[in-house]
Amino acid sequence: MYKTLIRKILFKYDPEKVHYFTFDALQKLNKIPGISAILKKKFLVEDPRLEREVFGLKFKNPVGLAAGFDKDAKLYRELSNLGFGFIEVGTVTPKPQPGNEKKRLFRLKEDEAIINRMGFNNGGVEEMVKRLKKNKNVLIGGNIGKNKLTSNQEAVEDYKICFKALYDYVDYFVVNVSSPNTPNLRELQDKEPLTLLLNTLQKLNSGRPKPKPILLKIAPDLTDAQLLDIIEIVKETRIAGIIATNTTISREGLQSENKNEMGGLSGRPLRERSTEVIRFLAEKSNHAFPIIGVGGIHSPEDALEKLRAGASLVQLYTGFIYEGPGLIRKINKKLLESEFVQ
To answer: Which HAMAP family has this protein been placed in (predicted)?
Structure first.
């Protein structure tokens, strides 16, 4: 029903307006008595064989929602009713910011992809904290970034502010230095500034009674040499793992009219490259750390591909938009038939 009717209607309208409309509709729908239970029954696959323990956390199932969808932690409870094993919120910055000028979100229907140049639009970390205080049982990842007007030289302070504010309200952290939509942000992926940033956060982390896992989200556009640097940085800083990958600036092989829009590309065209990055990191590091695989997962087979390449968990974003919430259930059902359950 989603692909044959709902998606056809939604895709007739501006994608950013549809995003906010969907948020509002899901919130209102879940306020109707009994609807949450109905959604869980329809989409949630509950089976102990799906449970995963990764970087010290217990996940109900290995299929999560990637950052960028619920930027302000406004819908994490409602989204968890659709079957996700975990929800990553953000990217959040210390201060509220409007993001880049509209229009900034584009569908590439022929490629089953999206280009976005949102630019970390969010209401700031303090507003996110207010919402996360109401969380009861949703496993939450907090994806943190820097404000657009903060220079790279001062960026560490922005990440520290977000880390301190969110510490008590998220289960793990993700350091986002790989979005292509904040000027010069990707320069923080270079070995020296990235090591400094991660060591600073780890120092804050180690001073806490119960340190939280810190992960690094990387771009798919890194070279093999840069990926080898990432492996060394993970080893040196002792962070918990990697999320591979963020959106790409590549436009290779695209067919759609909007293919030359500026921004980060996500969706089916990213599948192969993100899997390559996962496999490279897993093999070259001798599986030394967990990897969350994200990028181009539009089917259960795509998810299995990521896991077989070396990912411990997977995340959806664009595939969730194109395929609908039924995709989460399909992946978990397929996992129960695979070599990944005992």
So the answer is: DHO_dh_type2 (MF_00225)
